[in-house]
Amino acid sequence: MKYSKYIIIVFLGFLLNSCSDFLDPDPDSAIKTEDFYQTAEELELGVIAIYDALQGVNSNQLNDNRGIQVEFYVTEMLSDNANTRTPDANDSADAGQFENFSVESNNGISANYYSSMYRVIYLANVVLDAVETLEDASSLTRIEAEARFLRAYAYFNLIRMYGEDVENLGLPLVDHVLTEEEKAIQYTRVSENKIYDLIIEDFLNATEGLDDTYKSRASKSAAHTFLAMVYMTIDNADYSEALVHLDQVASNYALLDNYADIFDPANELNSEIIFSIGFVNDAANDSQNYSAEFAATGNSSGVNYLTTDLQAKLSNFGGTNRQLYNIDDNDSEDKYQTAKHTTNSSDDEQAGTDFIVLRYADVVMLYAEANMGTSNEVNVSGSWADNYNKIRTRAGLTAVTTITKDELIDERRYEFFSENKRMFDLKRFGVATEVLSAFAAASGYDFNSSEVTLPIPLREINLSPLNSNGEIALIQNINWR
C-alpha cells in the first residue's frame, strides 16, 4: 500500500443502478485532496470512493485491488468449508495454498486482500482528515461516522486474519493520512489491543452518528452488530457488553420465512439484510466475477466448492432446505457448489449479485453465543429464542430447548456457508486449531497452529525500511519467519 498526500480517485458510477442507497457521483480523477474536499457534497464523493474500494475491481489481475471479491479465500477456503474443484490442475498455485493450509508470504491473493483493506482504511482517513479541516464540522456527523465505520470494518477483518498476539504483534495502525516524514508508521506493528481500541472507538462513533436508513451503506444497527462481534472476539471477551449492543439492533429487521429468498437476486436488500455490498449486472466497473468462479464458468476450474466434509455434514445435519440451496450437484464429477451466489446477469463474470455482510440471522445466533458466554450450553429462552428456532425450522430442522457450544458452531457453519464467516467464527469460539487440524489430518494436509493466521504479505515486508538496528522494520508473524 502507498500513503501520500495526494489521491487519484476514479469514481465508477458506484453500485447505484442496483442499490438506490448510493449517490451517483460524476467521474473525477487526479484530484489533490486538500483542494477537493471543501464541502459536504465533495466529502460525500469521498465516502463513495471508500465503498468503491471495498467493492473492489472486477478483474483477474492481482495488481488490481479486488476488495471483498477475494475475501472468500481467506475465510472460506482457508477453513474446512471450501476447496477448488480440481486441485492443482487448472487453478493457480495461490488458490491451492488456501485449500491445503500452505499459504506463503508471497501469495498474491493474500497480498491483494491485505492491500485492498488498507486501501479502504486510507480512503477513510482521507475523508476523516478533511472533516477536521472544515469549519462546519457539526454538519458532517454522518459523513464522519460512515468513514469511521468503514475504517473499523476493514481493520476488524485484517486484525483477525493477519494479526497475532505472539510477541504482542498486531498490525500497523494508520489513523490519518501520512506525510512522507511519517512513512515508518505504515511499517510499524502495534499491539493487537491498540488496533481493537481504534475499531471499538470507530464503531461506537458510527452508532452515534448513523441511523438505519440504508442497507447497502453503513448503519447504526450494523455498527452495533459488529461491536457485539468485537466484544466477543477480543481477549477476555465481554459477553455482557455484546448483549448491550445486540439489544440496540433495530426491530424492523426480520427473518424471512424462506431460506432461498434471502439470496434471490430479485429480492436484494430484503428485511433480513442489515449490511450488504452492492454490485450491478453487466457493468464492467461495478460487477463481480466471484459468482462465475464458484460455478466454474469463469477463468478458473472452480473455487469455493463445498468440501466433502461439509457436503456430508450439511446433507445429514444441516436441514433439507439449506441442503437444497447450498449444495448444487450439477457437476459431472460430483463436485458440489453453492447456489447462494446465483445471478440473473447475461454474463456470469459480470454478476450483479450483492454480497451480504450481515443479516438478522447473525444477530439471533450472536444472542445465543453471548448468552452462552464461557459455558458449554445455553437454554433457548428469552427474546431471541423464537427467532433461533425459526432459523432451524425454516432450514427443515426441529426446534430445540438447549444448544451446546459445538451445536452452535455447526449451526452457524450450515447457515452461513459461503458468506465468509467460517474462519472468523472458529477463531472467535477459540476452536480454529482444534477443528482445522482434525480436518487437515482427515484430508491428508499438513497443518500447524500458525496457519490460522496469515503471514504479512512479502511485498509489504520488502517495502519496509530498516529500523535503527539494521533490521526490517515490519516484523513478520513469528511462525512465518
TrEMBL record:
Residues of the signal peptide: 1-23
Domain SusD-like N-terminal: 21-232
Domain of life: Bacteria
Localization of this protein: Cell outer membrane
InterPro entries registered for this protein in UniProt: SusD-like_N, SusD_RagB_dom, TPR-like_helical_dom_sf
Transmembrane segments: none
Entry's family note: Belongs to the SusD family.
Protein name, per record: RagB/SusD family nutrient uptake outer membrane protein
Organism in which the protein naturally occurs: Flavivirga jejuensis
